[in-house]
Design brief:
alpha+beta; 2 domains; 20% strand; 41% helix
Length: 401
């Protein structure tokens, strides 16, 4: 029987780095267990997994991809039409009709903001407000390439029927979009499950305010990663040398500043809702297996990080522990509710705390999961380890059993 949930726990050590910054440029933080920890947000982790282009990347999977952008309609509808010889204003007019119909109230808000902004910036000497030169949605939208290609076909057909006249083309597209049920059915028929919205939406979900595009619930649940100990930070004073001044024998620098650096061992936690994943992927087992196998590899080896040029913030996980079962998932973060002391062997103490907490959970609630792991020097606390490739294959087998 296939597992209902797959839980992936990691312990990863990062030396001097700045992995995830807040709006003031400092490392993100979170109070936990009476002390402040350094944190990597779930959004940051997911963004790096989505954008990763190396081995085991999501983009290497044979599935339609999602497009996350405010300019998706400009790039995949307006631009192709203009390249085919359609007047840019006419193409944008038709595309705006599509946007307004699909995104509803979200786009009305954008129209009001655009109108207000246009009057402030364009009236007066420049004359009355004109439309934006680039079609942007009010917020970042998540759309699948199949959806965008289909919408471009609708726009192309409307323009063909109207002989390129903008007013007539907009009336034609209005008529095509009037039947919500028919349009929604056509969009959902593009791909099985929710893959018309692309692989990214099938994994990490998408929120849609309109009634036509399908909302997709995330099948991959990602926790904010936090250090197992209290925050360890240092202010890094640095200067940028001015080569021309230095060549004249002076010691002056061209720039002096300071930046925060952190180090730490982070506990990471990801849950794969196997039933949700199966539904979102259209019950395609080979695709589901590829997704799970690649995710295990990426979670263990793909590092987030700001200031890459000056910190090279790349690390592999010390421990990857995967659990497969049908009981409700539960984080093991509470193994570190009492922070690990930073003046000892942090990795060894983290292993001990994690194994001890897991044993206590088993004693109270029973062992409800099958487990496998890959770890560095972890055999004293976690018996029977394997390597990452075999662990990823084992994880695939658990969701396809």
């Amino acid at each position: 029987m296939a597992a209902r949930f797959l839980q992936i726990h990691t312990l990863t050590s990062y030396p001097a780095s700045l992995l995830n910054r807040d709006d003031a440029g400092f490392a993100k933080r979170m109070p936990f267990g009476g002390v402040v920890r350094t944190r990597i947000s779930s959004q940051c982790q997911k963004a790096h997994w989505r954008a990763y282009e190396g081995e085991h990347a999501l983009r290497s999977i044979d599935a339609p991809q999602s497009v996350r952008s405010r300019e998706s309609f400009e790039e995949y509808i307006v631009k192709p039409l203009v390249e085919e010889g359609v007047n840019a204003d006419v193409a944008r007019g038709v595309a705006r009709k599509l946007v307004g119909r699909l995104l509803g109230s979200e786009q009305k808000k954008q129209k009001a903001e655009r109108s207000s902004k246009g009057k402030k910036s364009l009236e007066g000497e420049e004359g009355p407000a004109t439309e934006d030169q680039t079609l942007k949605t009010a917020q970042v939208t998540v759309l699948g390439r199949p959806e965008l290609d289909y919408l471009c076909q609708l726009a192309r057909a409307a323009l063909k029927d109207s002989s390129g006249d903008r007013a007539q083309a907009e009336k034609t597209i209005d008529a095509q979009l009037r039947n919500d049920k028919e349009l929604k059915k056509n969009l959902q028929a593009l791909m099985p499950g929710s893959l018309e919205a692309g692989l990214g939406a099938a994994l990490f979900g998408r929120m849609i305010t309109g009634d036509i595009l399908a909302r997709t619930d995330a099948a991959i649940h990602v926790a904010h990663a936090m250090t197992v100990h209290s925050q360890m930070t240092e202010s890094d004073y640095f200067s940028a040398l001015d080569d021309l001044i230095r060549n004249e024998g002076e010691q002056e620098s061209g720039h002096i500043n300071a930046s925060e650096l952190t180090s730490g061992v982070y506990y990471g936690y990801v849950v794969i809702d196997v039933t949700g994943l199966r539904s979102n992927l259209g019950d395609t087992e080979a695709l589901m297996g590829d997704v799970v196998q690649n995710l295990v590899h990426m979670i263990a080896t793909v590092s987030p990080g700001a200031k890459k040029g000056s910190t090279a913030p790349y690390s592999y996980a010390h421990l990857v522990l995967v659990e497969a079962g049908n009981a409700q998932p539960r984080t093991l973060q509470n193994a570190f509710l009492k922070p690990i002391r930073s003046d000892g062997d942090i990795i060894e103490n983290s292993y001990r705390a994690l194994a001890g907490h897991m044993a206590e959970l088993d004693r109270i609630y029973g062992k409800n999961e099958q487990r496998a792991h890959a770890g560095i020097d972890s055999s004293e606390h976690f018996a029977g380890g394997t390597d990452l490739a075999r662990l990823a294959t084992w994880s695939r087998e658990q969701v396809l059993a």
